[in-house]
Request: fold
Amino acid sequence: MTTKEPLPQLAASVVICVYTELRWPQLCAAIDSACKQSLAPLDVLVVVDHNEPLLARLRERHDGDPLVRVLTNAHGKGLSGGRNTGADAARGEVVAFLDDDATAEPDWLAVLVSGYADPAVMGIGGRTLPVWASGRRPAWYPEEFDWVHGASYRGMPVGQGRVRNVLGGNASFRRSAFAIAGGFPDGIGRGVGGGRGAGAGGGEETELCIRIQQARPDAEFRHDDRAVIHHQVTAERERFRYLCRRSWAEGLSKARVTERVGAGDGLATERAYVLRVLPAGIARGLGDTLRGRPSGLGRAGAITAGALITAAGYAAGLRRRRARPAAGGS
Reply:
């Protein structure tokens, strides 16, 4: 009886997209965490989004570093362009994406890469834990809305499992997936980092994953919560106002995603989230209130407001989409 030889481990590249010097300490920590992985990356690509002073500063910091390559965004301004630049330049067979204000645990990359032993797997995402600027989660802030600030949220799979799409700040793709679908889309999502003047929406990785699956029906995407990163949540993002703004922008983004890939695929995960996860969160908050925990009412209210604002943003996005042909024909 012969034993099967283990499959060779795939080489991986890490891509970090940046746009502002205001995150310099966090950015340096992100780069260093990518370089110190237990599975050494083939290269770490830092893609700068049309910011010459930041480009020069990074190139000075990594001058002579054989592992880190500092690139300028060769595509349209924004996060999609930066990610596509990194994917184009990556040498690894797996391309992992890490947010510029997050740090990866030492085995993050090894866990992600291990999932590609199955040739059907086109992408794998991990678990993103929030690091609150105030030191702890605000009492009113529902875990169901942690996607607002880029972290894993209540309702996501626990452990390992199949998902429709990965979340972009802690994600990886087989490099060949980009040849299948053509990369991250323009016109969806945010400017890199979601700074002032940039769109606050998301959804570019959702649209890409759906397009890959539509082009190749046997393609799989998976979540593995052993691949952990720690993501900074600024004081601004701890505020209710920011949750409302992001919820509105998310609704607009969902309308753009469904325009491109259809409502059936574009809203499949969201339906379960709205019908099961959010009502359970509201009930949990109200139950806490009845048990004398006043923060429960705040959480229930935040879930209700976020859901309604997202729905309103989605409806507004649909109206804009329907109005465009008429405007173009006048």
About this structure: The domain at 12-241 is CATH 3.90.550.10 (Spore Coat Polysaccharide Biosynthesis Protein SpsA; Chain A). The beta strands are 12-18, 43-48, 68-72, 94-98, 102-104, 121-132, 160-163, 170-174, 220-233.
